[in-house]
Structure formats: structure tokens, C-alpha cells
Amino acid sequence: MKMKSLLLGVALAAAISVPAVADSPEVIRMATSFKIRSMDPIKQGFWMQEFGQGELLMKFHADGSITPWLAKDLKRVDDTTWVITMRDNITFQNGKAVDVPAVLAAIAYNRELNGGTQSVIPAEAEFLQTGPWEITVKTGTPVPELPSILAHESRLMIIDVDTVKAANGDFEKLEGAGIHTGPFKLISLDDQKMIAERYDNYWQGKPVMKGVELHFVTDENARILAVKNGEIDIALYPPVAAKPVFDVTPGVTLDLGAVSIDGFTGFMNVKKGPMADVAVRKAVMKAVNYQEIADTVFSGTKGKATGLYNPNFSWALKNYEFDLEEANDLLDKAGWVKKGDYREKDGKPLSITMLIYPQQPDLKPLSSALQGYFKAVGINSKITSVDSVNETAKNDLVDWDFALSSTGTATVGAVGNFLVRYIHTGGDRNYGYSNANVDQLIDELNVTMDQKKRDELLGKIQTVLVEDDPYAFVLALHKERVLVGDNYTDYVPGVAWNHVKWDTQPNH
Predict the structure, then answer these.
(1) How far is CA 381 from each of CA 8, 159, 376, 466, rounded to the nearest angstrom?
(2) Cα separation of 251 and 232, whole Å?
(3) pTM for this one?
(4) What are the percentages of helix, strand and coil residues in the chain, rounded to 5?
(5) Hey, which of 39, 75, 85, 302 would disulfide with 476, CB 3.0 to 4.6 Å?
(6) pLDDT greater than 60 at residue 2
(7) Measured in Å, how far apart are the chain's first and last C-alpha atoms?
(8) Which pLDDT score, from 0 to 100, does residue 9 have?
(9) Is 69 exposed, middle or buried (0-12, 13-18, 19+ CB in 10 A)?
């Protein structure tokens, strides 16, 4: 109870940062730690899918499948040709028809201005109207992950481009302009909150609730107290380490959903230090108790890591194994000799530095647990907190051996981005790893359309990263999570950041 009192005491002190919320049971009241800064469709537009304003052509689901959303159908004709069939009953919130020319305009707008879109769709690709409600996509080179691209909130949001262009960069003019297709139209946005109202002519049916109030509250304790006091219905990004507190606090429930596509990932420094020894890297992976991290360290709020990917995916190998005996054997055979609690080799201690960052508080209990696992096999370790793990590890700003990050390995089902950026030689988030075999497998994967062949290539990549040349591995999978008040205990946390849907409502 002392922990509970401390948490709520801090929350009381921070509560003044929570804006007053009208007591309306017909409005979804939410709080998030991130601020929507404008209605700029390129720089901030991805938020619109999250809170019921914007929609995409395809939709990602918790089981790893991708199905039509605004599109009625998506078919692959051959390795470089796809056909999108659009629904004929959709309008933007301003009443304009979402017809093929409007969709093509949205695609062209993103391809011209959105660097993320440009990175995943070849410049030579063509999107052509080939029927009243049909778009033919000719990619030029194979783009096997096109369904995932169409389901990614930062790639091809469908918007009313004519209205956006008429605003001429004055994005405040887009508030209330109804440029999206979702169930709730954004009518007001400032530094404190976003207000959206129901779009009665929404294509899937009349939304259940009258609107959405999203409040920007950076302090996690203030968000917790707002839920406890009934000022907020749903708070995003609650600290999972506080689950024991939530369990004994009236008025709040930590609501867990499906296992996520993201997780806590460890990256090993293969360039120098102890981790340059493959045996040490293999031993580190064997020393981690993945089940205990999920069940005990995070009180069941994380999913057990069984491999590099969420096990729902067809290509996911379950090749992680907790085996202290084998970890010790690997180190013994590599010449790392136990001297007391820790090991050394040629007079050099087996000691590693772990990097974490303060923006992700759950890395504290995780790194502390890892210290215990590593000690059990004779590896000494210390924890260093830095502002940016990526910048620090990439540029060797401090001596480091093991970097922890919250990273998605298959965002909305797409594996290419993570493999190219983090694993492939020269990737912008590669911290020194280089394996010619893995590079070749990734290059082949990125132009392979056949799913059976893709599964085979991904299996080989996962095998190398565990058995031959370890570098990056997942320590725990996130579970979708929110903190809810008593009226929303039936709420199902969103998958792929889709927090508000047309039928989101309080308990029945």
C-alpha cells in the first residue's frame, strides 16, 4: 500500500495539468502522452487513424492478417500488378465522394511529400484508374508488402486533397473541414486537447457515441488520477510496472489486449568488447528467462518472447530457449573462466554496459532483471541511461555492449523496414552488424512474392540471428494496454494504434 500512496500522491501534485473535462457519458474521453501538433496530413496525419478521424485502404488485425477497410478488395495479379477495388458508398466527412480520382489524389499527395511513402513504394510505380471503382497498381519491381503499406497509418492515409491544397499550408483551416472518412470529424485542436464530433453519415453506420475528447497529458501519474477521479474514461500508455498498484486501486483497471507486434529488443555490440565474442552473445540469449520476464517482471502485462516475431505470424520461429546450463557451457568452452561470481579471460573481466533511455520507464525493471540473469552465468553488468539509445549506440558516444529499445520487428505485418534499417549492413539503425549471408537473404526477401518462399527466407534469417551470428533479439512482446475507468472495463485496446472505432462505447 505504500507504493500505492506514493503513486497517487505524486499524481495529486501533477493533477493540475489535467484539463477540466465535461461530464458527458455520450463522449469518449481519452488522455494520451503524445500531442497532436497540427492537422498537417504529412507530418501529423498518422494520428488521425488512431482516434477515429482517418482511415486506410487496408486494416491490420491482431492475428497478423490484413483485410480490406476503405478498399472493398485487393488482389495480386502477378509479381508487379495489383488491383484495388473501392467501395461505392463512402464519403469524406464534408460530403464529397471517396471515388477513384479522390483516392488517386490522396496516394499522389503522399508519394510527392511523404518520405516514408517514398521509401516503400518504388518511384516507377503507377496507380491507374482501370474501372469505375477499380485502381490497378503497377509497381515496376516486386513490392511483396504492399498490403502492409496500405495498412500503415504513416504511408497512405485517404484524405480530401483538394480541401487540403486549398488551405495552402494553413492547417488550422482544416479543423472542421471534414477531410477524412472516419466516424468522428475533428473540429478543434489546440495545445491541450482535440475535439471530434460524430459524423452521422459514416459509411459503416451511425457512430454510437457523439464525439471524442482527447486530452494531451504528458505526466503518467496525472493520467492515472484523471481516470481514478472519473475525469477521463481511457488513458493510453500506463506504466505496466504499476500493475500491482492498479490492482488495488478503486476506479481504475489495467485493460490488456492482444500481444503486440512490438516488443523490447536488445542489440549487441559486435564491434568490440565482450560481445564481439559469438559465444558470449549466444550465452546472453540462453541466460534470459523469457517466461519470467513476461509473467513476473511485468506481472503478466507482457507476452513471452519466443523468437524475433510475434508467434501469430506464419513465418515466426520459436527458437529462443532459456538454458543456464548451456549458457555456462558456452562460456566455459570459450575460455571465460569463473573467478568468484564473475568470469574473466586473459585477465579481462566479462563485464558489459547496458543502455536504456528514460522515456521508456519499463526498461528499468527489465534491465534490473537482466543483471540478475547475466550474473547467474558470470557476466557482470551495469546500466547506463542515455537520452537516445539510437544516437548513442550508432555513434559510440559512450562505451556500450547491450542496448535496449522498444522496437517493432514486423510493424503492421511488414518485416522489410526492420530488417533493412536494423539488420542489413549499412542500415541507418544498424549498430555495426554485418553478415553477408543475412544481407543476401534480406535482399532476396524484399523482391520475393511467394509467401512460402518468403517464410523460408525469414526462417533462415531468424536461424542465423540465434544459432550462428546473434545480434538483435526480442526480450518481451508488448501487449496492447490502456487504463480505464469503471464504465469502460469492456473496452478492447486497439491493435496497430486504432484506439477509437465507430462502435466504441461504454460497458453495455
Answers:
(1) 33, 50, 11, 22
(2) 11
(3) 0.90
(4) 35, 25, 45
(5) 302
(6) no
(7) 32
(8) 41
(9) buried
